[in-house]
């Protein structure tokens, strides 16, 4: 058997292979490639357009992202959208949130240093309700642009809306006060009980001894703030009781709850020039203090009381003849080694200018006599004439005391040193202490009254009086009753006798008529004797007879005698 094996062919001869023909064709683009090319161009143009129209990217930090939503929450200025929140994230220390905002191209001016941002939410306060529209549309970020042109892309957002926007008509002023009281940012500012502004901000003074408040008064009412204007804290209710009754004053209900500031020009001549921007004023505690004349330079005085001054506290008034001229600034105990007692040393500040024209006259008189018009010398003359300090009761219900500087008659002379520092005013016992001494004297006198013997004598007297009353009831009263019955019978008889139809009354009437006729006859007789006094000697002459009447001739009777012609 034989195996059939295929015969392997050898490599072909190059001469036998055909030569390839290479043809160079021109590139012919198909129309199908035009569509993606146009799409790429459109996309590129959109990218370039968005890049050219895109505004700045800014970052705002807030305490919380409540109400904010990335991609939805807008940024508005005067209710016009100028940007949108595109990202919200926590800060690295997790103390606040960072909100990335993409502003529009037209809002490039909002990426400046003095621009302010805050979240607008529904807020209910004493000043009213704000942000009601956000209940339906949601919260948004409000913006307020300033005057700066310096670029800034990082901002710290406000937790509350700013009380005053940039560019608002009006002026700002500065008020200085000892404390803030119930005032806060946004507290109203009133002029004649009309709100004309608000408190914009406040801060502690650098020395820490007071507070500076910045207020903003809206135009055109800012023209009413003059160089002479007085500002006072209008918070709460001012209650006063005077000769005209009870008075209750308040600016509005909002000031009672949240506080407020009021201002007005003082009465009388004053500088009515409008105040410049950021002019400084003093914020007084109430309207009465604000409208009072200037106090002038204060003077410190000291008083030494030998009796208790319970009820006298710091800020208690110091009065001169009923006029408030200062206040108490300190009350402390001292020790007198010689008398072994603890006197009370009271320090006070007085304002001589509050005396007004009286103080000016005292200074003029001192200068006219060639004397030093200093307060120490003037007080020395007043002390010589009986001026003393006295702690008096200001309120019987609370027991509060005040210091009264008054002239005490017949007071003993005391040594006074006008050069002493501080000036020491002599004192006398207070009126209430005198009343207590008088009451104690009365009690001592009452203790000396022999009430025991008086009581025994009174008991004996009452026993005798009781016996007398029994005797009166047993004997005197029955006899008195019989006497009264007799008097009643007598009165009945008298009534019958004096009745109108009784014989006595009729006889009395006839007698009175006869007396009347007799009186008329006497009157006629006296009249006749007055005209004929000789009748007392000769008697009354007979009355002359009346003359006979003459016949009266009438024209009819005379006509026959005269005759007539036929």
Biggest β-sheet strands, sense, barrel: 7 strands, mixed
- State mean pLDDT (0 to 100 scale): 80
The spatial strand order of the largest sheet comes to 5-8-2-3-4-1-9
Straight-line distance between termini: 243 Å
Unreliable runs, pLDDT <50, ≥5 residues?
Answer: 554-566
Number of helices: 11
Number of strands: 25
Strand content: 25-35%
**Large-scale geometry:** elongated
The SS-based structural class is alpha/beta
Helix content: 25-40%
Radius of gyration: 59 Å
Labels describing this entry:
27% strand; alpha/beta; 11 helices; 566 residues; 7-stranded mixed barrel; 7-stranded mixed β-sheet
Structure description:
The protein has 566 residues and is an alpha/beta fold. Among the domains are: 106 residues, no CATH class; 122 residues, no CATH class; 131 residues, no CATH class. It contains eleven helices and 25 strands. The strands form five sheets. A seven-stranded mixed sheet has the order 5-8-2-3-4-1-9. A seven-stranded mixed barrel has the order 10-13-12-11-17-14-18. The protein has a seven-stranded mixed sheet with strand order 23-24-20-21-22-19-25. The longest helix has 47 residues. The protein is elongated and about 220 Å long. It starts with 33 loop residues before the first helix and ends with a helix. The relative contact order is 0.05. The C terminus is likely disordered. This is Mammalian cell entry protein. One of its GO terms (cellular component) is plasma membrane. Keywords: Cell inner membrane, Cell membrane, Membrane, Transmembrane, Transmembrane helix. InterPro entries: Mce/MlaD (IPR003399), PqiA-PqiB_transport (IPR051800). It is found in: Cell inner membrane.
